[in-house]
């Protein structure tokens, strides 16, 4: 196991009767990265995270977290998690709720205000939890996860149920956690979310990891979309270029697979061949397209989220 692995899982499996919730998951999360765990509802994300935290016993396979077995007290002391919303008292303030949690977790009370500040709730710290918006409640959950000033933060679907503004705030908060040098694991069924805050992503479907890579690796190389006239001359010119991997007409334009460093060469060659280039743009594949290619999900799969880009 590499020494910079904060989490490592080998063939991790969980069965509930005949249901195989997690099926032979291999996973490595490196120190300091924001790692996305992306998959549709029921894919096995929560079960995997619960096994890593020692909340659920694996049926088979092995895992280590911060170099310790799941559930090890030292590893738990260095880990903050938001798996199921922690139970807060509605009639107590956000601050008092956290003070109680801090006492229970043997964390100094002096950690409470920094945790509230980290989630931008310091100004409402004295208000009753019951009066908080859903976004504020979720942020208080993250503050609870930060009480121990953890090296590793595990967040399971932290934006569930939030409105677009709440989602944006939560994403900014998660990005900040990564910038502070913490290792962050974010589980989500939202492509945009994972794409926005994570460097590496594991896609999970039906309990299996179907792919792991950086967001860029998963998206692959962007194609170049060229609008040019006359198009037959453009097509012939592009096909003759050694660094162009493929060219195909698509509607009114040509889709060219060519390394990004040759973009300027493509334009120059076309112009030299007497072609008028009227449009040129890179078309990035979204993680969503990659996911639909990799899994059994259909592009129209939908559930009740506020965003269009989801699994
Ligand atoms: N305690 C349990 N008993 C029986 N089946 C379970 C249990 N926990 C999870 N499962 C099943 O395991 C599968 C994976 O569930 P899990 O909650 O890990 O998925 P998920 O990817 O986190 O999805 P969601 O986003 O909906 O929570 C599902 O089919 C679920 O019904």
What topology does this entry show?
Elements: E1 5-16, E2 19-30, E3 34-38, H1 45-52, E4 60-65, H2 73-77, E5 79-82, H3 94-104, H4 112-118, H5 134-146, E6 152-156, H6 164-179, E7 183-188, H7 191-197, E8 200-205, E9 208-214, H8 215-219, E10 223-229, H9 231-239, E11 246-250, E12 253-257, H10 263-272, E13 276-283, H11 287-294
Parallel strand pairs: 3-7, 3-8, 5-6, 6-7
Antiparallel strand pairs: 1-2, 1-4, 8-9, 10-12, 10-13, 11-12
The structure holds adenosine-5'-triphosphate (ATP).
Question: Could you explain the architecture of this structure?
Answer:
- With 311 residues, the chain is of the alpha/beta class.
- Among the domains are: 5-78 and 151-218, Rossmann fold, CATH 3.40.50; 221-283, Alpha-Beta Plaits.
- The chain is built from eleven helices and 13 strands.
- The protein has helices spanning 45-52, 73-77, 94-104, 112-118, 134-146, 164-179, 191-197, 215-219, 231-239, 263-272, 287-294; strands spanning 5-16, 19-30, 34-38, 60-65, 79-82, 152-156, 183-188, 200-205, 208-214, 223-229, 246-250, 253-257, 276-283.
- It has a six-stranded mixed beta sheet, sandwiched between helices. It has a four-stranded antiparallel beta sheet with strand order 11-12-10-13.
- Mean pLDDT is 87; it is low at 298-311.
Outline:
By secondary structure, the protein is of the alpha/beta class. 32% of the residues lie in helices and 28% in strands.
As residue ranges, the low-confidence spans are 298-311
Quickly name the level 1 CATH class of the domain at 5-78 and 151-218: Alpha Beta
How large, in whole angstroms, is the Cα Rg?
Answer: 24 Å
Strand content: 25-35%
Mean pLDDT value:
87
Structural class: alpha/beta
Distance between the termini: 32 Å
Strand tally, please? 13
**Which strand order spans the largest sheet, edge to edge or round the barrel?**
5-6-7-3-8-9
Ligands, ions, cofactors: adenosine-5'-triphosphate
Q: What is the count of DSSP helices, taking H or I runs of 4+ residues?
A: 11
Please trace the helix and strand order, writing H or E for each element. Answer: EEEHEHEHHHEHEHEEHEHEEHEH
Question: What general outline do the C-alpha atoms trace?
Answer: elongated
The fourth-level CATH homologous superfamily of the domain at 5-78 and 151-218 is P-loop containing nucleotide triphosphate hydrolases
Largest beta sheet, briefly? Answer: 6 strands, mixed
CATH topology grouping of the domain at 5-78 and 151-218:
Rossmann fold
**CATH architectural label of the domain at 5-78 and 151-218:** 3-Layer(aba) Sandwich
In which range does the helix fraction lie? Answer: 25-40%
